[in-house]
Amino acid sequence: MLAIIGAMDEEIELLLADLQGREDLGFPGVTLHRGVLDGVDVLLTRGGIGKVNAAMTTTQLLNAGATQVIFTGVAGGVHPELRVGDIVVSTDCVQHDVDVTALGYAVGTVPGEAPAWAADPELRAVALASAQVIPNVRVVEGRVASGDQFIASPEGAARLLGTFGAACAEMEGAAVAQVCAKAGVPFVVIRSVSDTADGGAQVDYREFMPRVARHAKTVVRGMLARL
Ligand code: ADE
């Protein structure tokens, strides 16, 4: 079954409103909504903010039978060409706040684990095709950098670009990716840009987040029609 996760209510409410035959499944720490969206059986959920919530939610989705995972939401654009409203489709995900460099590991690498987790080629292709039909929106395929931090400085954004070659900054994708990779379940992360992770990020985020969350939702619906 296809699972769709957003971190916040704003990121899933537009999909939840159209879920047919909705059944709410209570799991420890998270409620999963099962139903039919645009003719496709889905599990839909608000996973909460940050990597721990994302990992917990993904684990429960896999326990409930998810075989493909889409994460949808907003992000801070780090790629120099990204503007508010644009879309990032993940090539892979890294955890930018993991630092075991003192023991000789590359920054971002969890000892014993892959340095990054690759998104599924088919889900990427379907997400890309769905995003490219949205008018006046640039679509970038790139690396999603996740950490338990809201990035809001030019230095912070430059570090993610320079150290990781990131396209965007957010707080959940790599946790979803890590859990899915361990289980061998395909995933993709789709993010619309609410801010550019720089000095104006807090103001832009508050102003644009609800509006641009719609773009990511449009991509998900396009994917449902194509999968
Ligand atoms: N989500 C949206 N904007 C973000 C930012 N600047 N940093 C981290 N997560 C975000």
Shape annotation: globular
CATH superfamily annotation: Nucleoside phosphorylase domain
Top CATH class: Alpha Beta
Which fold name is given in CATH as the topology? Rossmann fold
- Give the second-level CATH assignment, the architecture: 3-Layer(aba) Sandwich
The SSE string, one letter per element, is EHEEEHEEEHEHEHEH
Ligands, ions, cofactors: adenine
How would you classify the helix and strand content by structural class? alpha/beta
- Spatially, the strands of the biggest sheet line up as 5-9-8-6-10
What is the terminal separation in angstroms? Answer: 12 Å
Q: Short summary of the structure?
A:
With 227 residues, the chain is α/β, with parallel strands linked by helices.
Structure overview:
- Keywords: Amino-acid biosynthesis, Hydrolase, Methionine biosynthesis.
- Pathway: Amino-acid biosynthesis; L-methionine biosynthesis via salvage pathway; S-methyl-5-thio-alpha-D-ribose 1-phosphate from S-methyl-5'-thioadenosine (hydrolase route): step 1/2.
- Its EC number is 3.2.2.9.
- The protein contains six helices and ten strands.
- It is globular.
- Strand 3 (30-37) and strand 4 (40-46) form a beta hairpin.
- Helix 3 (121-131) crosses helix 6.
- The chain has one domain (2-226): Nucleoside phosphorylase domain (Rossmann fold).
- The chain has a five-stranded mixed barrel with strand order 5-9-8-6-10, surrounded by four helices.
- It is of the alpha/beta class.
- Residues 74-76, 150-152, 169-171, 194-195, 197, 201, 205 line the site of adenine (ADE).
- Adenine binds at residues 74-76, 150-152, 169-171, 194-195, 197, 201, 205.
